[in-house]
Amino acid sequence: xxxxxxxxxxxxxxxxxxxxxxxxxxxxxxxxxxxxxxxxxxxxxxxxxxxxxxxxxxxxxxxxxxxxxxxxxxxxxxxxxxxxxxxxxxxxxxxxxxxxxxxxxxxxxxxxxxxxxxxxxxxxxxxxxxxxxxxxxxxxxxxxxxxxxxxxxxxxxxxxxxxxxxxxxxxxxxxxxxxxxxxxxxxxxxxxxxxxxxxxxxxxxxxxxxxxxxxxxxxxxxxxxxxxxxxxxxxxxxxxxxxxxxxxxxxxxxxxxxxxxxxxxxxxxxxxx
Length: 273
Description:
The chain is mainly alpha-helical. Helices cover 60% and strands 2% of the residues. The chain has a two-stranded antiparallel ribbon. It is elongated.
């Protein structure tokens, strides 16, 4: 996060910090002078030009010192906070529970969007292999999220529906083929959502993305994630040869090699291999 907009960066002084400028020697001398004028002229002191000049000078001096103090605190934070953050990451500390609780309780966030946030917010790995895996998982989830529709245009109410317009429900009742096609489309959509949101899915994402397969094979749900793992190894991984062009048609992205496919299957589609 850019340090200028980081909420942890000091944006204003606390009450104690603001009052601390009164201990500055220059401010103390000005206040002492003003008190002398106040004792000398008593009730008419505030009407004296010298007293008013001292008051303005005290106000301006306090303002300058507070601005300088805030800048000093911000510069110190800019210098020390990134180092402290890196040290916390290297020590193995995880994200705070406040962040995780916020993600868990945000019911309005779609599952794929929550998965995106959780994947991108992971801390850097302690080894180069872990960091490469974190990077690849981030790339894969962003590529998968590109196909997620975040909403649509608001439907405008019609003043009056045409009497010649046929109801969709009535059309499906009178046309079984249309109803079956609509049911298949909905089933495919549900299966597509599950391979992105379930941590251990039972649907094969490679079969789901293969449009040449029959509908039953594309949306088949295995009895357990372990059965899916056996299918994935036997039907897909076992047939991969060196130099084969690999692709996840669900995410519409190319994969470099067999290990990339396995990492993508685990991190994005919850398929263990």
